[in-house]
Amino acid sequence: VQLVESGGGLVQPGGSLRLSCVASGFTLSSYAMSWYRQAPGKERELVARIRSGDGRIDYADAVKGRFTISRDNAKNTMYLQMNSLKPEDTAVYYCDASGFYWGQGTQVTVSP
Q1: What is the mean pLDDT of residues 22-29?
Q2: Which of 14, 60, 65, 103 reaches 20 to 30 Å from 84, CA-CA?
């Protein structure tokens, strides 16, 4: 069982990135899937969640209107499209499967 994130990097303020989370060993759509982030010196926080079943989506207030979570069941992959990035979005981003499985994280740095 594995979750592997990718797509992080260094981007200027106002830029965009798309993170991917590929699941193996289990069916991603059977779990509520989430993106979390953790900035240096701060606690891990929920960024976005897409539920199993009805696919209901929730976002943290800080990213509403800028980030979009989605999943491709055929590819067993979840995505996080991040637009209008700000320096305060700098963090390690993790994907999570209902707390059962975590990825290793991918670094996102937003800096001029």
Answers
A1: 95
A2: 103
